[in-house]
Amino acid sequence: MSGSVRHILQLALGVLAIHGSLSPPAWACATCFGDPESDMAKGVVVGVALMIGITGLVLTGIAGTSLYWVHRSRRQPQGDRSEPAVQ
User: Fold this and answer.
1) What DSSP designation does 38 have?
2) How far apart are CA 38 and CA 45, in angstroms?
3) CB neighbours of 38 closer than 8 A, spacing ≥ 6?
4) Which is more confident, 71 or 3?
């Protein structure tokens, strides 16, 4: 690394360190902080339940379709699978 690039990098890191030490602390929202009585936390719980429910319905539909295909294939008449006689 040349001297000017190293000087710019050190200056940038120094500015970031000063900016980070002078900025106010970040406070978590009610959802992250854990207030279970807030409307946002209740909304997150409903949203997660809805996503799990939709995922469960889709997977149940896939399993049901697969079982239907298995059941339908067993009802089909099976042909003679023996090899034809060679003459």
Assistant:
1) S
2) 11
3) 30, 31
4) 71
Q: What is the pLDDT of residues 31-53, one digit of tens each?
A: 677 777 888 888 889 999 999 99
CA pair distance 55, 59, nearest whole angstrom:
6
- The span from the CA of 19 to the CA of 27, in Å, is 18
Closest to 64 (Cα-Cα) out of 74, 72, 54: 72
- Tokens 């209740």 identify what position? 42
Q: What size, in residues, is the chain?
A: 87
DSSP-assigned letter for residue 34: T
Whether the predicted model's global pTM rises above the 0.70 cut: no
Sign of torsion over alpha carbons 26, 29, 32, 37:
positive
* Beta-carbon count within 10 A of 41 CB: 17
